[in-house]
């Protein structure tokens, strides 16, 4: 039986880039109500007026006791604070999920205070956007993107299924079920490493006209250097052990090429590039 | 007065990815003839039959004495060999250009043998393509791309203008006039560094399913790891001094982030990211 959202009240905590895309995406499922909380009253008023949400609340305690599903769209520390401060207000049996880019630090940060009668399923939608001047983000940023979930054995199977249905209906592509350790290990590589590299590349250049001298790779590789500084610094530090290990390995690999370029070892470089080319092809476009 | 190509005979030396795109692009100017040389007879025959060129030659000496413009579309060492071996066959006053990704090594490699009565204008079209199964490449890979030229004072002004007209008509975007040192310095950064980084990233991964765990950055940043190994190894080694210096600086920048992540210096990271974000914005999309 397909999950029915029409009798559900859903809260989106935080109407930033991701939160507003969730509010927009939830409409397809026509839940009974989509509520939102935010620190800024004007954001909530605009969201109400534009029909993005049914009603906004600055104080989560006013609405949390009614909500069947809570999607926390906040940065790591803010998400921890939100859950800790509001633990007493969550509705019994409610499904809580989040969008934070590291999972171990979030799960550990609430494990001692999480009530037994709520069901927290950690999540990570692999979607985002460069900085924009628009106030609210459309759900189209989700289209075809990966969504990682790290449920535990304690989670109710029907809630995991409900969340998967919701994710699919919002337009995401693959849903990957994994554990927090694997999540943080892979994310250190596919996401955090990329951001440190992009930032380091831009860091090196003192020529704002540098893009005259390129074929597209430099711009593609450094676009993510227009970074949300606070959010990423927080995620890097929260995943410090895994990220610094990968950065060490990455430096070793760069040094391998550097040493062989310096020594003019053409055949060694060609051989390694051939292996790498095949490996990358196996990963798909 | 606009340059007229209709009385020109043009030779494309090498019908690979770039050479075939040049042959295709030259058609708009309707030169008297577009000839090509290549090591593979079947490539020349197919190019003749498909109308890509007027006639192909395996031996450059047979056709070079007739050609007003020669575009050498070969790798660095092959381009050097082509120019050295065929120096006696170039037509008096002919315009020679090339597409090699480093300029100093090419210019130095021929400066002692270049005839005074030919006009060699080094060039570098910043266009390319991932490996493909198609035999010939359409000129569309040039659309809007940058083209770098490093003419010297010895070059004839009218030939530089002729070349610029040709480049524009083939659909390129900006033409940047620079010197070989600047070219090699900038290219080490915008192009060679990107390729070493992409290769090193793929080098680190032993998981062909890694792209399940990403939001797009990893795939975008590593697509160029499907590299033409021989060509790039040759270019890296030819530009070794500049590239290894940039790789050292890049490692320093990565280490800056690594050390501050390890130490949990959030404010230092945020401050640097803010600077970098502004710098990247100034570079344009």
CATH superfamily placement of the largest domain in chain A: NAD(P)-binding Rossmann-like Domain
Beta content of chain A: 5-15%
Helix and strand succession of chain A? Answer: EHEHEEHEHEEEHEHHHHH
CATH class of the largest domain in chain A reads Alpha Beta
CATH-level-2 architecture of the largest domain in chain A: 3-Layer(aba) Sandwich
Summed up, the domain count of chain A is 2
Low-pLDDT stretches of chain A are none
Distance between the termini of chain A: 36 Å
> Radius of gyration of chain A, Cα only, in angstroms?
21 Å
Counting DSSP E segments of at least 2 residues, the number of strands of chain A comes to 9
CATH topology grouping of the largest domain in chain A? Rossmann fold
Largest interface: A-B, 89 and 89 residues
Characterize the structure shown:
The structure is a homodimer of 285-residue chains. In chain A, helix 3 packs parallel to helix 4 (104-110). Chain A folds into two domains: 9-178, 3-Layer(aba) Sandwich (Rossmann fold), CATH 3.40.50; 182-283, Orthogonal Bundle (6-phosphogluconate dehydrogenase C-terminal fold), CATH 1.10.3660.10. Chain A contains ten helices and nine strands. In chain A, helix 5 links the parallel strand 8 (147-149) and strand 9. The mean pLDDT of chain A is 94. With 285 residues, chain A is α/β, with parallel strands linked by helices.
């Amino acid at each position: 039986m397909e999950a029915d959202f029409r009798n559900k009240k859903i809260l989106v905590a935080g109407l930033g880039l991701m939160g507003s895309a969730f509010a927009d995406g939830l409409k397809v499922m026509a839940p009974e109500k989509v509520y939102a909380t935010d620190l800024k009253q004007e954001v909530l008023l605009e969201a109400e007026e534009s029909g993005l949400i049914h009603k906004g609340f600055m104080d989560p305690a006013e609405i949390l006791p009614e909500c069947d599903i809570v999607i926390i769209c906040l940065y790591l520390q803010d998400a921890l604070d939100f859950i800790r401060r509001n633990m007493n207000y969550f509705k019994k049996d409610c499904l809580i999920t989040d969008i934070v880019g590291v999972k171990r630090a979030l799960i550990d940060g609430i494990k001692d205070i999480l009530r037994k009668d709520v069901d927290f399923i950690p999540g990570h939608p692999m979607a985002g956007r460069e900085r924009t001047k628009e106030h609210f983000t459309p759900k189209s940023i989700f289209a075809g993107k990966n969504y990682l979930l790290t449920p535990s054995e304690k989670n109710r199977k029907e809630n995991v299924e409900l969340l998967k249905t919701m994710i699919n209906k919002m337009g995401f592509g693959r849903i990957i079920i994994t554990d927090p350790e694997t999540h943080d290990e892979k994310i250190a590589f596919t996401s955090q490493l990329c951001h440190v590299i992009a930032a380091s590349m831009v860091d090196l250049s003192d020529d704002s006209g540098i893009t005259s001298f390129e074929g597209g790779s430099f711009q593609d590789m450094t676009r993510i250097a227009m970074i949300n500084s606070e959010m990423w610094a927080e995620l890097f530090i929260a995943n410090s052990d895994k990220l610094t290990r990968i950065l060490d390995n990455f430096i070793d690999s760069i040094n391998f090429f550097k040493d062989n370029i310096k020594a003019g070892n053409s055949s060694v470089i060609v051989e390694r590039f051939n292996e790498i080319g095949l490996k990358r092809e196996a990963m798909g476009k």
